[in-house]
């Protein structure tokens, strides 16, 4: 099972669906592009994960969560698509900037008025109220996930995938740390107090907008709950009633915060009304300095080594990053939070064996009773399954995916178990599991192509060819099925039909993986 890695280029076409126009953002998770929808010329944004195996589940989850919610302060999700083995999510294109860029650009020439920051806060609360009304929590509110439209000036919430990388745990650098906006109950215990954890994150957003600082200057301060500086101690222009709103939203105990978006919005509206009334006789106050973020933990702390690991990664020093991450684990006596970080860095660097060892230790800690959310446990099981597959430890992968199915019996989990079973030689079980997934996801191209693969391994070429063709009926650019059909006809000596399929592979394969396999198979020296 090959890992499909996406790297887009301007003007590249994705099947007959989209033409890429300009890259909007990039991270370890994937890329976001401005694109033109070919069927009607509409401009949209599409998110494309680098790791398609993991990315499809995350993006499908994001699309399922939010596409039914329509609100002017939420970036609309149109749906998801499978295109030539790429899974993409199609979203509303917002011509603007994320709030992080706005806050970092504040200056005397471009001040940020309290009127503007309060308007944005109310818009964010309005969008979040619609999310909460659907019994959903965002879980990752931060400036990077708030877009500001150029034309209207409206703030819109985006990124409902909760795609915070495991390797980011407790590593804060400027504009890179999700944990800076995390409620204490989430940071300390991995538990979310439902909607009031999102309220806390909005309090941090408002604190930063008003002061240009984060409330805590290090993860240690957040974990130990030190007394934060009040906003008016940093910026004397912060109105007293606004300070009260911020501090209440950021109350350490969840029950002392605003209990819903409506009550916080009413308090913010009261602040804004008073400011506008006073603006008749006085200038509207504003902040005129850019945000000053970042921290440097003491060298005795494991956090120091995690920050060092991040720095080494940015410098391209893979070995230095690994050594720093291992030192962090040693300094923390193998604390699960640091094991997560080490495992994530090892996966990122391709050190699969070391990554598996870290996640194995982490899973042991979970099994011994370390408090953990169900989703975190499932993430570790998924990563171990991926690693065991990469290391060709197929029996171990089967055992891990069996645990994943026990934890969450969803089509994705059974699909991964089916693939592991097939790789381990249990073709009958693989076919049985894939058929259960097909019954629930009859439109999933990858299920048909893997059914063809499993039947081929099981010696039933007739069924294999049938499922490959069914996959192509759903997606004419499915590279796996095109290649396998071409390979079959090449092996049985039907070179004409083999050439037809291989030519389609070469035309559709933008990343070159299957093209290389075609050349390797058809080379005279092969």
UniProtKB/TrEMBL annotation:
Cellular component annotations (GO), alphabetically ordered: cytoplasm
PANTHER family the record matches: SERINE/THREONINE-PROTEIN KINASE UNC-51-RELATED, SERINE_THREONINE-PROTEIN KINASE ATG1C
CDD domains assigned: STKc_PknB_like
Extent of the TPR repeats: 479-512
Occurrences of domain Protein kinase (ranges): 18-272
Entry keywords, A to Z: ATP-binding, Kinase, Nucleotide-binding, Serine/threonine-protein kinase, TPR repeat, Transferase
SMART domains found in the cross-reference section: S_TKc (SM00220), TPR (SM00028)
Species this protein is from: Actinacidiphila alni
Name of this chain's protein: Serine/threonine protein kinase
InterPro entries: Atg1-like, Kinase-like_dom_sf, Prot_kinase_dom, Protein_kinase_ATP_BS, Ser/Thr_kinase_AS, TPR-like_helical_dom_sf, TPR_rpt
Pfam families: Pkinase, TPR_16, TPR_7
Coiled coil: none
PROSITE patterns membership: PROTEIN_KINASE_ATP, PROTEIN_KINASE_DOM, PROTEIN_KINASE_ST, TPR
Source species, domain of life: Bacteria
């Amino acid at each position: 099972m090959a890992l499909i890695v996406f790297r887009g280029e301007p003007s590249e076409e994705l099947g007959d669906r989209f033409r890429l126009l300009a890259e909007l953002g990039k991270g370890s998770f994937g890329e976001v592009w401005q694109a033109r929808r070919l069927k009607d010329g509409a401009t949209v944004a599409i998110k494309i994960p680098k790791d398609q195996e993991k990315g499809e589940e995350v993006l499908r989850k994001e699309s399922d969560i939010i596409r039914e919610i329509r609100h002017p302060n939420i970036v609309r999700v149109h749906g998801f698509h499978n295109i030539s083995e790429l899974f993409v999510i199609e979203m509303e294109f917002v011509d603007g900037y994320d709030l992080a860029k706005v806050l970092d650009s504040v200056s005397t020439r471009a001040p940020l008025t309290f009127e503007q920051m309060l308007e944005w806060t109310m818009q964010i609360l309005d969008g979040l109220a619609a999310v909460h009304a659907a019994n959903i929590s965002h879980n990752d509110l931060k400036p990077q996930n708030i877009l500001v439209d150029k034309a209207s000036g409206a703030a819109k919430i985006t990124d409902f995938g909760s795609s915070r990388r495991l390797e980011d745990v407790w590593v804060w650098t400027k504009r890179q740390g999700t944990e800076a906006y995390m409620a204490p109950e989430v940071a300390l215990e991995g538990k979310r107090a439902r909607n009031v954890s999102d309220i806390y994150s909005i309090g941090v957003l408002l604190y930063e907008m008003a002061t240009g600082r984060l409330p805590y200057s290090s993860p240690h301060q957040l974990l130990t709950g030190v007394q934060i500086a009040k906003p008016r101690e940093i910026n004397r222009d912060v109105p007293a009633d606004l300070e009260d709103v911020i501090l209440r939203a950021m109350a350490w105990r969840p029950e002392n915060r605003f209990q819903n978006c409506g009550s916080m919005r009413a308090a913010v509206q009261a602040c804004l009304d008073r400011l506008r009334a006073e603006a008749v006789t006085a200038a509207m106050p504003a902040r005129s300095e850019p945000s000053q973020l970042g921290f440097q933990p003491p060298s005795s702390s494991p956090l120091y080594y995690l920050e060092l690991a991040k720095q080494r990664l940015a410098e391209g020093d893979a070995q230095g990053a690994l050594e720093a991450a291992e030192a962090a684990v040693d300094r923390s006596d193998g604390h699960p939070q640091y094991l997560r970080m080490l495992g994530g860095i090892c996966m990122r660097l391709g050190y699969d064996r070391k990554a598996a060892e870290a996640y194995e230790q982490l899973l042991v800690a979970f099994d011994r009773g370390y408090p953990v959310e169900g989703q975190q446990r499932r993430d570790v099981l998924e990563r171990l399954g991926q690693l065991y597959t990469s290391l060709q430890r197929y029996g171990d992968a089967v055992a891990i995916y069996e645990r994943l199915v026990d934890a969450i019996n969803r089509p994705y989990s059974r699909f991964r178990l089916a693939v592991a079973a097939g790789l381990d030689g249990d073709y009958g079980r693989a076919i049985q599991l894939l058929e259960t997934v097909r019954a629930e996801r009859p439109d999933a191209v990858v299920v048909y192509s893997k059914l063809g693969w499993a039947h081929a391994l099981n010696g039933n070429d007739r069924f294999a060819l049938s499922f490959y063709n069914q996959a192509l009926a759903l997606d004419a650019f499915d590279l796996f099925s095109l290649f396998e059909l071409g390979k079959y006809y090449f092996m049985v000596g039907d070179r004409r039909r083999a050439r037809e399929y291989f030519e389609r592979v070469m035309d559709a394969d933008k990343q070159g993986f299957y093209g290389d396999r075609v050349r390797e198979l058809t080379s005279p020296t092969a």
